[in-house]
């Protein structure tokens, strides 16, 4: 998060964290999905 804050030029971590935490969570979820770490109930589809 610190690198993102510095790259964007935010003076504090607050705006960076508020904006980009959800993006990071989605990226992590995508990585977990790609690695098949989250069990899926395919019969519900």
Describe the protein in words.
The protein has helices spanning 2-8, 13-34. The protein is elongated and about 45 Å long. By secondary structure, the chain is an all-alpha fold. 64% of the residues lie in helices and 0% in strands. The model has no long low-confidence stretch (mean pLDDT 74). The protein has one domain (2-35). Helix 1 (2-8) packs across helix 2.
Keyword list:
single chain; 2 helices; 64% helix; 45 residues; mainly alpha
A few lines on this structure:
By secondary structure, the chain is mostly helical. It has helices at 2-8, 13-34.
What is the element layout, followed by pairings?
Elements: H1 2-8, H2 13-34
Helix pairs in contact: 1-2
> In this structure, how is the largest beta sheet organized?
none
Measured on Cα atoms, how large is the radius of gyration?
A: 15 Å
Strand content: under 5%
Number of helices: 2
Distance between the termini: 36 Å
Number of beta-strand segments: 0
Count of all domains: 1
What ranges have pLDDT less than 50 throughout 5 or more consecutive residues? none
């Amino acid at each position: 998060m610190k690198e993102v804050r510095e790259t964007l030029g935010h003076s504090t971590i607050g705006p960076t964290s508020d904006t980009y935490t959800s993006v990071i969570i989605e990226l992590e979820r995508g990585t977990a999905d790609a690695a098949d770490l989250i069990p899926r109930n395919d019969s519900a589809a």
